[in-house]
Write a structure and sequence with these properties.
2 copies of one chain form a homodimer. The first copy, chain A, has 28 helices and 11 strands. By secondary structure, chain A is mainly α. Among the domains of chain A are: about 210 residues, Clc chloride channel (Orthogonal Bundle), CATH 1.10.3080.10; about 160 residues, CBS-domain (Roll), CATH 3.10.580. In chain A, the strands form 4 sheets. Chain A has a 3-stranded mixed beta sheet with strand order 3-5-6. A 3-stranded mixed beta sheet of chain A has the order 4-7-8. In chain A, β10 and β11 form a beta hairpin. In chain A, α14 runs antiparallel to α17 and α25 packs across α26. Chain A is elongated. Chains A and B meet through α2, α12, α13, α21 and α22 of A and α2, α12, α13, α21 and α22 of B.
Chain lengths: ~725, ~725
């Protein structure tokens, strides 16, 4: 850390790329933080020199807020555009607006003056494809033609989506949240948040959602927002040159993403805090809050319907677990096949044909007296003269029983089809789909309880709280609680789940049942395994993610984990004043370690610092090119003052400036539990192990992860990257 | 850490109190965590032995949730009882219920059949004192008598409160939040969360709030809930014997406290996370969530009015800053004087006489057509035939102007009187009082804007968004935003503030203005100084609190902060095998350090471990009493195997088991920025400084805090405790 600091001062970035990281490597949080402090100090001390420097330092201080503003504006705008495009393209599968083809069904009938609220679905300007082609709106032929074109459009959209992802941006597939979690924990995946990913993910997200596949847009929107964050980081060297600071911006961008995905700014901040982020200081909390606010505001300004909540949901489904199929080897074929099955099976059932957001909205709603939905076909009391708000429980009519069957089928269909949908190579999210499954199940249970309470109000369980003629069971509430429970079981969110749910529904009074659902679903799900879906995904991909939730309670010590092991060759070290350039080059060539400890001498083994492989390679290369007299037999000095050498000796190479003088050390007796804690909390890449001041070995983040996997009886080789 | 671990195994708590802390000392988080893991491992391995051990281990695993349940139940119950008692005693100052003296005004008239909603204030059963004594309800004499008795009751209540606090539990005064923050950060204040404090704080809180003083009950309720948490910790050795685990429970208890103070469970969890807690793992988040849920549920079950929100507010005021008066030396006199002034000045103004919760409630409300409040005395449009929901802006009537004057006076009065109220030796909170000040200011601004918009709707600022005859300004919303802004400025909360505000008001649609207010007030307040009121309080009291928000950006190194300094005597160390019992005792006697490093020898200075002063003292004392042959000239061995000694030598004392073999070390070149980070994130008490494996010095938490104070040009001597 200090080494990097000294470097800046003495030589002002002498070698390009010193202090940067390779792809698929882990960053050193402490070092990044230290580098930023150095930069900050430099600007502060310069700011006293001139007016211009003062202005520059003020701009630097405010650049964080500016980046947040830009992220909020862009992600809000993109979310709004995606919403409008999905709306239009989803309706395009069914028909077209004659007055203006770029209007969605709702907009088309909205502009029609003759429409009243009740039959907003039917207006002359909006024609189904069958109507347009054959002139007949009804009848078997029209139904088949509509069905066929619906499937055809769906196939076209999904084919376009999977092809674009395949050709232009492979990183644009999936929800992106597991990778963002990994990136935020300090891992480098170049291009994952790049401009191409942003562009292709935005376009293919629209296509994938519009195709009616069993997937959601919320996770991908978080990815899109993080791409925006990364884009704006490149405008300010404060963020583009410091991987630690960049991750602070990305945490806030994730909050903005959830904010626009649900119209839930507070939920977004909490999601980023509870689910996604790794290092989340209070400063980032405030900035996330601001970014989420701006994003929600922008989306609201763009949203042409003005109703900011459920209108944000579109065609989305969900899966609670993973499966691989043989089809996985042929991603395009897989997508086409799954789309075809989805479209063919979804069309006939009214609850799967419509968009999931509309479905959830209907399932959440309580039946008013004027409700025309099939779900609200109750037998009304003839004595009830006028519609009132507080309708007592009523017996179900034939429509309700019919709806129950269709809902049950829809539930089975969704669970099965989403098993095959998830993991396909197109953008796909998780949130709303889980909620749909939960909401269907909840509504079915709700109606069942309601009818039991009506017909058997003398049963003990109903006796005390449900007098006959009272409104004591609200099936819509069961649906809402079911949705929360299902989403909670999949992601293991608690606080952010409840906040998102009530920001979505406005149901602040139901906070207690929602919390109870969140806690219960967490307990039940944890009994099957502690990992939420994102952690499972991270583990499947072998990312080096050190989860803060896993408790490490084993009794191992640092000495059991450190390398070299008993029969390994000795630790590769450099000495402070007895290594030649040749030795150093041989060490670099023979090993692939990402850094080397520097000791006083091989005999004393007293540690004086740590040098990064990348920095050492660059320093030697540059010195060989630019510095006269540096040859293979030159001595490499890490000491403060080089000894006086005979004139005949070649020019020595002084490398103290790339030496980290404050490497992190623990003793060999330190319990691994403490070591894990240190790696987690300080975001280390490696840690040296000493005993009575002697260097014994080294523990890297990968060693820690492997050891943890081993202790949990998992395959330690599943940890793939560094 | 490991030392403590070994100790448990080999000797099963050989000396009483080994591993505990002294009063006003800081705990070592890593050590506590390690001790808990040892305990956990022991239980897990035992659980395979017998059924009974298995049940015990299951009970242990669930004890966390059981404690949460108990905390939720007790704190919810206490909050409910306090609410009812305050309600009754506040009304007792004005009169009494004839049908049952234990009814409050509202309950009294509630049970009266003749009452309609409009004149719920007047029912024959409720009589003012003047009515009861003289038979006259109206007239100057009755007014003066009521006034006199109002002041008398107030004085009686506040006298009782201050006396009880003084005599029985001095820790029960104030809001308690700064101390709880300090305790949660790892400081020990014995008795602060004890049973007596719980009892006295509950009783005196009722008295203080009922007396009508300018103070609130929310902060004290957090203190009460934490006392409950501490009480239940003592039921389980898992929590009572481990200061780290105890603090996890206390964090959750703080969430339960806010949950019942506002009826805002989510807000409570976020408050605990953002404002109070220091170490807040996800597990604690889930448990806090559960405790807050149970507490809110219990309170709702007790609450006799059924309306769970604003009814929770009672007589509370606020101050945004501190002052000390000469009266401070005479706490009882001070309380009596301030109560007298408050009561005398508050009675005549209708906005200060009523309870603050009612005031806030009225200020937040929009004026409906039927509203009888003075604030809603608008000139109605005679053409408007029937009351509608959406009333256009109207010109203000004389009542509104009158109310404006009274509100302005109330604002000045509250700000001034609370300056003198705050810091008195009675329980006093901050939340609702700040909101009242903000709400008054907001409502005044709101009415002003409304009238401007009505009379000058051709002005540019109003032109575009306010057509004549539209309802474009809602003064109630201004009051709500003002309240949020004022509370935010005082406490610097952001996310938890907004969540609490909308859990309080149900105003989910106003989330954007509320967020804007929170961000703006934070920016403005931060311009005057970064510290919120709790941090200021902590600093005033000199608690050793390492704030995670302060950024340390100075360029100092560990070598600049460590002791011994240049001209100090050398570091007090023990050697592993050349110290006698006498030497060790002399070292303990001559120094007051809380621990000593152990080195191989004074020449090599190689560090092998660290021993706590307390543990060393106890070990020597116990050995001298119980172990034969241990005399002053006995050698103390910290090595694994003691050397063979001549038979003539006295019995040696082996102390490896109290030696911490993994003390935390940094190099002398480590930037202080990193050291501060390590202290914060790992919760260390001390850290040893080495160079090339040689021990150079030590840095304690107090040294870090002193250095930080010095760097910020504050008095380093303001850090008082260890």
């Amino acid at each position: 850390m200090n080494g990097a600091g000294n470097l800046m001062d003495f030589l002002d970035e002498p070698f390009p790329d010193v202090g940067t990281y390779e792809d698929f490597h882990t960053i050193d949080w402490l070092r990044e933080k230290s580098r930023d402090t150095d930069r900050h100090r430099k600007i502060t001390s310069k700011s006293k020199e001139s007016m211009w420097e003062l202005i520059k330092s003020l701009l630097d201080a405010w650049s964080g807020w500016v980046v947040m503003l830009l992220i909020g504006l862009l992600s809000g705008t993109l979310a709004g555009v995606i919403d409008l495009a999905v709306d239009w393209m989803t309706d395009l599968k069914e028909g077209v607006c004659l007055s203006a083809f770029w209007y969605s069904h709702e907009q088309c009938c909205w502009t029609s003056n003759e429409t009243t609220f009740d039959d907003r679905d039917k207006c002359p300007q909006w024609q189904t494809w069958a109507e347009l082609m054959t002139g007949h709106a009804e009848g078997g032929g029209a139904y088949v033609l509509n069905y066929f074109l619906y499937v055809l459009w769906a196939l076209l959209f999904s084919f376009l989506a999977v092809s674009l992802v395949r050709v232009f941006a492979p990183y644009a597939c999936g929800s992106g949240i597991p990778e963002i979690k990994t990136i935020l924990s300090g891992f480098i995946i170049r291009g994952y948040l790049g401009k191409w990913t942003l562009l292709i993910k935005t376009v293919t997200l629209v296509l994938a959602v519009s195709s009616g596949l069993s997937l959601g847009k919320e996770g991908p929107l978080v990815h899109v927002a993080c791409c925006c964050g990364n884009l704006f980081c490149s405008l300010f060297s404060k963020y583009s040159k410091n991987e630690g600071k960049r991750r602070e911006v990305l945490s806030a961008a994730a909050a903005a993403g959830v904010s626009v995905a649900f119209g839930a700014p507070i939920g977004g901040v909490l999601f980023s805090l509870e689910e996604v982020s790794y290092y989340f200081p209070l400063k980032t909390l405030w900035r996330s809050f601001f970014a989420a606010l701006v994003a929600a505001f922008t989306l609201r300004a763009i949203n042409p319907f003005g109703n900011s909540r459920l209108v944000l949901f579109y065609v989305e489904y969900h899966t609670p677990w993973y499966m691989t199929t043989q089809l996985g080897k042929y991603p395009v074929l897989e997508v086409i096949a799954v789309t075809a099955i989805t479209a063919v099976l979804a069309f006939p059932n009214p609850y799967t044909r419509r968009s999931t957001s509309e479905l959830i909205s209907e399932l959440f709603n309580d039946c008013g007296a004027l409700e025309s939905s099939q779900l609200c076909d109750y037998v009304n009391n003839p004595n009830m003269s006028r519609p009132v708000d507080d309708i007592p429980d009523r017996p179900a009519g034939p429509g309700v029983y019919n709806a129950l069957w269709q809902l049950a089928l829809a539930l089975v269909f969704k669970i099965v089809i989403t098993i095959f949908t998830f993991g396909m190579k197109i953008p796909s999210g998780l949130f709303i789909p889980s909620m749909a499954v939960g909401a269907i199940a909840g509504r079915i249970v709700g109606i069942a309880v309601e009818q039991m309470a009506y017909h058997h109000h003398d049963w003990i369980i109903f006796k005390n709280w449900c007098r006959p003629g009272a409104d004591c069971v609200t099936p819509g509430l069961y649906a809402m609680v079911g949705a929360a429970a299902c989403l909670g079981g999949v992601t293991r969110m608690t606080v952010s789940l409840v906040v998102i749910m009530f920001e979505l529904t406005g149901g602040l009074e139901y906070i207690v049942p929602l919390m109870a659902a969140a806690v219960t679903s967490k307990w039940v799900a944890d009994a099957f395994g502690k990992e939420g879906i994102y952690e499972s995904h991270i583990q499947l991909n072998g990312y080096p993610y050190l989860d803060v939730r896993d408790e490490f309670t084993h009794r191992t010590l640092a000495t059991d984990v450190m390398r070299p092991r008993r029969n390994d060759p000795p630790l590769a070290v450099l000495t402070q004043d007895s290594t030649t350039v040749e030795d150093a080059e041989a060490l670099i060539k023979d090993t692939d370690y990402s850094g080397f400890p520097v000791v006083v001498s091989r005999e004393s083994e007293r540690l004086i610092g740590f040098v990064q492989r990348r920095d050492l390679t660059l320093a030697i290369k540059t010195a060989r090119q630019k510095q006269d007299g540096v040859v293979s037999s030159s001595m490499v000095y890490f000491t403060e003052d080089a000894q006086q050498l005979p004139a005949s000796d070649p020019q020595p190479l002084k490398l103290r400036r790339i030496l980290n003088l404050s490497p992190f050390t623990v003793t060999d007796h330190t319990p691994m539990e403490t070591v894990v804690d240190i790696f987690r909390k300080l975001g280390l890449r490696q840690c040296l192990v000493t005993r009575s001041g002697r260097l014994l070995g080294i523990i890297t983040k990968k060693d820690v992860l492997r050891h943890m996997a081993q202790m949990m009886n998992q395959d330690p080789e599943s940890i793939m990257f560094n």
